[in-house]
Amino acid sequence: MEMVRLDPPAELTMSIGEVMFSQRATRRLDSDRSVTDAQLQIILDAASKAPHGGDSLSARYLVIRDRGAIDAFGKLYFEAWWAKRRDAYGWTSKADIPEGSHYRLAALLADEMVNAPVVILVYSKPSRVAASSAFPGIQNLLLAARALGLGSVLTTLHPDVMERVDAMFGVPEGMEFHCCIPIGYPRGKFGPTSRLPTSATTSWDRWGQPPPWK
Ligand SMILES: Cc1cc2nc3c(=O)[nH]c(=O)nc-3n(C[C@H](O)[C@H](O)[C@H](O)COP(=O)(O)O)c2cc1C
């Protein structure tokens, strides 16, 4: 297959610092505001520029735009979300999720997936480095979406629904599924993220030795 070189798109003007430090999981998406094909091309071009193992170039992206298809996929996502919580914790409804658990937010996505203007499913062709080569591209995709003012969230599925998802979109046998990413303009406001301090997650020269900052 012929390779292409791409110039940086003029639309990506947000600074890399602002993009990285303001990117966050956005679960409430505006179903009435559409995402253009040109925006999706920028997002996918950005994904294509990411590092990948060896010469694998194995990541493949399935963009779902059709409203009916997103409705049908959203129902499967809802089933998958609850199947994962049932397997992990025995939860079957929101009432089972403990107060203060981050799963209260994540459960919102099970309801919200049907509202996404676009959903991207990320797969790989069979490869030794399928997942590790797909995720740098996935991160580029999330960052490019943010730089265009779009919200997104990375999420996974459950084996219970995988066959039906693949059949729904004609995914060939042998493709490895990684994640699905709904994309759209955020509905409502979203604040900054908080994370562990890097002084607590980083060792310096020897495991357990702190870095030179607090
Ligand atoms: C591997 C992976 C799986 C995830 N699965 C879900 C999910 O099932 N549902 C969901 O709402 N968010 C999911 N997320 C998003 C995370 O909850 C989110 O990135 C994390 O809480 C940080 O959110 P923040 O950037 O808004 O602080 C997933 C993220 C990753 C990297």
Molecular structure report:
The structure is a single chain. The protein is built from 7 helices and 4 strands. It is of the alpha+beta class and 214 residues long. It has one domain: NADH Oxidase, CATH 3.40.109.10. The protein has a 4-stranded antiparallel beta sheet with strand order 1-2-4-3. α1 packs across α5 and α3 (67-89) runs antiparallel to α6. The N and C termini lie far apart (49 Å). The model has no long low-confidence stretch (mean pLDDT 95). The structure holds flavin mononucleotide. Flavin mononucleotide (FMN) is lined by residues 24-25, 27, 106, 109, 153-156, 193.
Describe the structure concisely for a colleague:
With 214 residues, the protein is α+β, with helices and mostly antiparallel strands.
Strand order of the largest sheet: 1-2-4-3
Q: Please count the beta strands (DSSP E, at least 2 residues each).
A: 4
Q: At the first level of CATH, what is the class?
A: Alpha Beta
Whole-number mean pLDDT: 95
Q: pLDDT under 50 segments (min length 5)? A: none
CATH superfamily grouping: NADH Oxidase
Radius of gyration: 18 Å
Shape: globular
Listing every helix as H and every strand as E from the N terminus to the C terminus, the arrangement reads HHEHHEHEHEH
In terms of structural class, how would the helical and strand content be classed? Answer: alpha+beta
Hetero ligands? flavin mononucleotide
